[in-house]
Amino acid sequence: MKRIFLLFLFAVSLRAKTIDVITHFMDDLFLDYKIIHKAGYQIRVGEIEDYWRGRSPFAEDLQKILVFNPFKNYNDLTYLPKEKLVLFVWEPVQPPAWYYNAFSRVYTWDDALIDQVKFFKFYYPHMVPMLANLPLFEEKKFCAMIATNITFERRKMIEFFETKPDEDFEFYGAPKGDFGKHKNYRGPIPGKHSGPEKIEVLKNYKFCVCFENCHHLQGYVTEKIFGCFAAGCIPIYWGAPNIDSYVPRDCYIDYRDFASKEHLYYYLKMMTKEVYEQYLSRIRTYLKSHKAALFSREYFEKIICEAASSH
């Protein structure tokens, strides 16, 4: 009897602590989480309405409630224990300062907010190695763009390439509006927002127009540039002003370096196979570095564990 009781206590001590993740996206991040599991946590993905349906936010085994992106209804959060609430801000639009009061800790990409007291840095976890088998330089098409949010500058790039030969540019996505009229539009790519299907498409192009949704936000480095790297496609990047702090300058083409789109086009057209392969070689080296590892899924799991154990 004593042995059974001791085994019961041992089993209870080993019982995984729960981390609730409230999200309407990125749920595929938690399909396989070895580091989190090894640390003694289990992930439960859901929505905030689950707490009104009977799930207790005060359960002893519930370690933290991670909220991915702000909610429009702030009052929903006031019924939850602040000491368990942790916010992850993914989108470029920041909530008002008072919104953060509901949370014990905030993780953000925004370098300007990081103070290591209330605000902590996290990185979009989308770094994967470059594909092993890529089309040859001579087999690749010229330039592509993948975007659903057609910002002003993306639209300008589409219009610019319409003045060039048809084979020089193709763009994909599911944008609003009548984009079927554009001769270079190739429709949406199946799969999830940052799924492998996009990489399989991009590997067939030498270059990709890689514009972030915002270009003035320090530290806003998303999956876009890493999708290009994984596909062995050189990004024409415009986004975080301090991108060089995260990615070596010689791994991408900085859109800001060119006086006009025509100058950029000429540079791309004149690039030799040798120079192109040097870009890919530097990208491969970078993807094996500590800097790139910050954007890995493994590092993101460590941040989740850090958030879960915080006081």
Helix content estimate:
25-40%
> What name does CATH use for the topology of the largest domain?
Rossmann fold
Give the C-level CATH assignment of the largest domain: Alpha Beta
In the sheet with the most strands, the strands line up as 2-1-3-4-5-6
Silhouette: elongated
- Tell me what the CATH architecture of the largest domain is: 3-Layer(aba) Sandwich
Work out the number of β strands: 11
Task: Tell me, rounded to a whole number, the average pLDDT.
Answer: 90
The SS-based structural class is: alpha/beta
> Span between N and C termini?
38 Å
The total count of helices amounts to: 9
Q: What number of structural domains do the residues give?
A: 2
Largest sheet: 6 strands, parallel
Q: What letter string, H or E per element, gives the SSE order?
A: HEHEEEEEEHEHEHEEHHHH
Radius of gyration: 22 Å
CATH superfamily of the largest domain, by name, is Glycosyl transferase family 10, C-terminal domain
Task: Give a description of the structure.
By secondary structure, the protein is α/β, with parallel strands linked by helices. The protein has two domains: 2-123 and 296-309, 3-Layer(aba) Sandwich (Rossmann fold), CATH 3.40.50.2300; 137-293, Glycosyl transferase family 10, C-terminal domain (Rossmann fold). Helix content is 27%, strand content 18%. It has nine helices and eleven strands. It has helices spanning 2-14, 34-38, 152-161, 196-202, 223-230, 261-270, 273-287, 290-293, 297-309, and strands at residues 17-22, 41-46, 62-68, 85-89, 105-108, 119-121, 141-146, 169-172, 205-211, 234-238, 253-254. The chain has a six-stranded parallel β-sheet. Strands 8-7-9-10-11 form a five-stranded parallel β-sheet. It starts with a helix and ends with a helix. The model is unreliable at 1-14 (pLDDT under 50).
